[in-house]
Amino acid sequence: MTVRIEPSILSADFANMESELQRIASADLVHVDVMDNHFVPNLTFGPAMVERVQATSPVPLDVHLMIEDPDRWAPDYAELGAHSVTFHAEAAADPVSLARRLRSIGARAGLGIKPGTDVAPYLELLEEFDQILVMTVEPGFGGQSFMADMMPKVSAVRDAVRGAGLDVWLQVDGGITVETIAAASAAGADTFVAGSSVYATPDPGAAIAELRAAAAAHSH
Ligand code: DX5
Ligand code: ZN
């Protein structure tokens, strides 16, 4: 299975975003956490900032919307050129319509699932999405501990994707390190978000390579 590593700029130095993006040029995509202080108790940035990141980044953008009313806001991120836009199942009024709208603009459509949310109702809608994001922390902050008890959920999505013969990326986000990535990969994830474990090291390029190797070693 193809392994994708996505550093999260939530852990980057916001005052030096251009050079922080250059430090992760060997990544597959860059993960951009948009938070509105309503869906999660934290506030990051909105479309104006993401547009500048899009213009500056050496790799495509994967936008993770932790916001209320994504039906209203998510298309703006597709319009500005994000490669993928993930909104949360818990926040969307009409996930299928929104995913279709994102795809019609030319973005990949992602569906995010919080730790307390059952994924089962969404497994019959997989063909509507390009990516399923299984959160492995409560969304809102970087640097939290990986929730290993989410691995059965990851495996359930992997089985459903395989069973349906679809090429839906399966992403995990939260607490991913060179240690925890093994369990996530073994459970069937193929796309790994890593904030602090990439940016809190002196050599993000080396961290990306180590994460990639550890994931590949456990992928099947
Ligand atoms: C958390 C965000 C994550 C965050 C992960 O709500 O969605 O993308 O940046 O940070 P780490 O890898 O430090 O857990
Ligand atoms: Zn995220």
CATH superfamily: Aldolase class I
- Summed up, the domain count is 1
Helix content: 25-40%
Task: Record the strand order, biggest sheet.
Answer: 1-8-7-6-5-4-3-2
Q: Which architecture does the CATH hierarchy give at level 2?
A: Alpha-Beta Barrel
Summed up, the helix count is: 8
* Biggest pleated-sheet summary: 8 strands, parallel
Alpha-beta classification: alpha/beta
Spans of at least 5 consecutive residues whose pLDDT stays below 50 are: none
Q: What features would you describe in this structure?
A:
The protein is of the alpha/beta class and 220 residues long. The chain has a single domain (4-218), classed as Aldolase class I (TIM Barrel, Alpha-Beta Barrel), CATH 3.20.20.70. Helix content is 35%, strand content 19%. The chain contains eight helices and eight strands, in the order E-H-E-H-E-H-E-H-E-E-H-E-H-E-H-H. The chain has helices spanning 17-22, 47-56, 70-79, 95-105, 151-164, 181-187, 196-199, 204-218, and strands at 4-7, 30-35, 61-66, 84-88, 108-113, 131-135, 169-173, 191-194. An eight-stranded parallel beta sheet has the order 1-8-7-6-5-4-3-2. Strand 2, helix 2 and strand 3 (61-66) form a beta-alpha-beta unit. Helix 3 (70-79) runs parallel beside helix 4 and helix 6 runs parallel beside helix 8 (204-218). The protein starts with a strand and ends with a helix. 46% of the residues are buried. Zinc ion is lined by residues 8, 31, 33, 64, 173, 193. Residues 8, 31, 33, 64, 173, 193 line the site of zinc ion.
